[in-house]
Amino acid sequence: MAWSVLLVVTLLEGLSGLGRTAAFSPFLNDLCRDLSLSRTQISAAYALAHLATMFVLPSVGRLFDRASFPKFLSIFTLLFGISFVGMSGLRIFDTISWVSLFILWLGTFGIRTALHSYSIAGRSTIALCFSKKRGVAMGIYTLFTTLIGSAVPSIAYHLHQHFTWAGVWASIGLLWLWMLLLCPFAAKPPPQNVPTVSSPLPSEQKTTYRPVLFYFVMTTLFFKAFQNTGITLHWMPMCHEFGADAEKVSFGFMPIAVVSITTTFVFGHFFKKITPATVLLLFLSADLGMLCAAKAIAATVGVYGFILFTGLYYGLNNVVATLVLPVLFGVKKIGALHGWAYAFVSFGSSVGSFYFGWMSDRASYQTALSVCMVAVCVLILCLFGMRKSLQRYEII
What is the fold of 2-189+201-391? Predict the structure, then answer.
């Protein structure tokens, strides 16, 4: 039963990559032209939609803990489809900019909420129902979602060459309404008894490290989304500024998927021998490498470096979201925990998308990446500062 549920969620989350940020990027300049809007305005609408999503995701997580699985999936599959269909009609209001921005905000809010609901469902199901094969389940789940998602930038690039953004969005929305037929075939299995590796602590000790640890991990996930959304929304204009081949970069997302999947399987298999702090340190180090490579992406070595470090970064993010969180904080309310995690992710996406758009208009994408590099270095220093105090509690 657990595997059948995971199969349905994997299929829905993988194909929903057509609604992720990278699929919007090729149409960004067309939207600016057709709707008479600037990149900053569109990025602001996109950012505010992510920000609004942040406030509802904890409730989405609690809904997963309480609702039947078919009902949960049906609600957000319907939301995803309707949002795309609605956004495809933006041209009707192309002479009224504030209406266009509101519809863009509303549609993006629906899409992002649905996307995160699939992630919550997939990762929570793995944490609850795969106590002995959690690493294997995570690897298989990541394999298919990443493989499908890795093709999205290239698919979006080629769709942009032949179709308008309105036609593409209408088609995705109608396709997704058909996906409602899959939802009744999934039923959430009962949770297994999933122990965590962190030893119980005295109540007076719990208050000393738990809030710090929780907010550090949430901040790390926030910053991952901050960069990921900003870069993927602007990857085509960024390539133009850097003098990089946009088509080559779009194809680069496919080998990134291979590296990501390999990283997820390797760390999932050896996770019991690796401390959560080591995973977080490697995660932030891969992030720094990705940003350095992105600044040099016009050169061949920059493209290869971007593929390597981004793949490591994405793969380690899967480990953090699926394995580290249950180990550190338990699975009693795993849906709510992932709801809070994706609330921070949405907050990061909201700020990041606007930040890169604002920086491109005021300075440059190179400057935007440099500021991100400084922020990652600060996070790494914070992690090293936490190690000595946390070692006393056998957390790292």
Answer: Growth Hormone; Chain: A; (1.20.1250)
Q: Which tokens hold the place of 54?
A: 């942040």
pTM of the full predicted structure?
0.64
Q: What is the domain partition of the chain in residue ranges?
A: 2-189+201-391
Each residue's pLDDT tens digit, 302-326: 778 888 888 888 888 878 877 777 7
In whole angstroms, what is the distance from residue 144 CA to residue 336 CA?
Answer: 25
Give how far Cα 233 sits from Cα of 176, 201, 239, 323, 364, Å.
Answer: 22, 43, 12, 28, 15
User: Which residues fall within 8 angstroms of residue 14, CB to CB, at 6 or more apart?
Assistant: 144, 145, 147, 148, 149
In tens, the pLDDT along 69-124 reads: 788 888 888 998 898 888 888 777 665 677 888 888 888 888 888 888 888 887 77
Helices 334-362 and 235-242, axial angle in degrees (round to 10): 40
Alpha-carbon distances, residue 393 vs 128, 197, 220 (angstroms): 25, 12, 21
Residues of the chain with pLDDT under 70: 1-2, 21-22, 93-96, 129-136, 139, 149-150, 153, 185-210, 246-253, 330-332, 387-396
- The candidate with the shortest Cα–Cα distance to 379, out of 348, 356, 357, 339, is 348
The two three-digit tokens of residue 2, written as one number: 């657990």
Number of Cβ within 10 Å of residue 154's Cβ equals 17
